[in-house]
Amino acid sequence: MSAFLQKFDLSAHVRADAPTIAIKDSIDIAGYPTTAASRALADAPPAPHHAEVVQRLLDTGWRITGKTNMHELAFGMTGINDFCGTPPNPQDATRIPGGSSSGSASAVGLKLVDAALGTDTGGSIRGPAACCGVIGLKPTFGRVSRQGVAPNVTTLDCVGPFARDMNTIIDVMLAIDPSFQVVKARRDASKTRVGILGVDADEDIANAVTEAIRRAGFAGSNLNLHSMTDAFSAGLAVINAETWRAFGHLAGRGKLGTDIESRLRAASNTTADDLSAAEYVRRKFTNEVDHALEGCDVLVLPTMPALPITIEAARAGTSVIGMSSLIRPFNLSGHPALTLPVSIEYSSLKAGLQIVGRKGEDETVCAVAARVEAMLAE
């Protein structure tokens, strides 16, 4: 099992002590094939150019050390991959690492790199980060360039960073997003107004989130988003339609994992009416989140409603789709969302605290997360 698909070192003209970063294999690196960890794309030609985010990292002095493993075609939540291997979960090797950016979360959690890039279409950064006990940020939709990232056309997917500390998350964002305001991201966030969302999650995880906010000194008000469940379902409809459009031509060739073949076949049944209904929910839920953020600066909630299941349980058929119930809705709406590990009482595993901000205010999300991190470390 490996977090990496390919290890190499793009270190020309980079100082020896430069920070290291790994890149998910759905993001182009010139001279290397972008296979999305799939046998169906194993013979893809080398990418002719770097993705824009890769070029920006190199231009700002980051040392790229390889391409990371992932759930095949970025279309799964477990991170299990029988073609390329399943990356180990640093918190508990018996549990799933989460998908689809499994290798990126694993590599950071195992301290193989300082940071990693992943992509998040339905929770694919935040889910693995929460599973593996690291930090993961899904930026505002459209804020970070997706040039050179698969799939080419999406209304959900975002490129974002993994790291073990907020300082590194901010450094990566500064590199990949020329509009990122580092001073704002590192400001004192003690006066931030926090809305605590009521959601369906295990009691010990909900308590861990509430305790972390209390220890950070935030005065939180309780809120509800009534369209969360509808937004989750709508997000599934959209990702199914867009993934079938991007990769449906690979189905039926005998080169896809059985889980991906099955999911693609099901995705092909998404109708125009399904998408029309999903777009209605998108508008409704987006407005609801925007309205909630008029009365506070960020929303907080658990990243996942439960701890990650075991690999054995996943292979036995235990459903994992519910693990994205609290993260997928914010792909549909496009708001920035970050997961930060927090301790659970009586458990060696950490849960994820999710922080959601106004569109374009990724820096505020980072500042709040940095304060929580600092206060929990005291």
From TrEMBL:
PROSITE patterns documented for this protein: AMIDASES
Listed InterPro entries: Amidase, Amidase_CS, Amidase_dom, AS_sf
Gene3D superfamilies the record matches: Amidase signature (AS) domain (3.90.1300.10)
GO molecular function: catalytic activity
Residue ranges annotated for the Amidase domain, each copy included: 21-366
A Pfam family reported for this protein in Swiss-Prot or TrEMBL: Amidase
UniProt cross-references to PANTHER family, sorted A to Z: GLUTAMYL-TRNA(GLN) AMIDOTRANSFERASE SUBUNIT A, MITOCHONDRIAL, TRANSAMIDASE
Family: Belongs to the amidase family.
Name of the protein in its database record: Amidase
Organism of provenance: Caballeronia choica
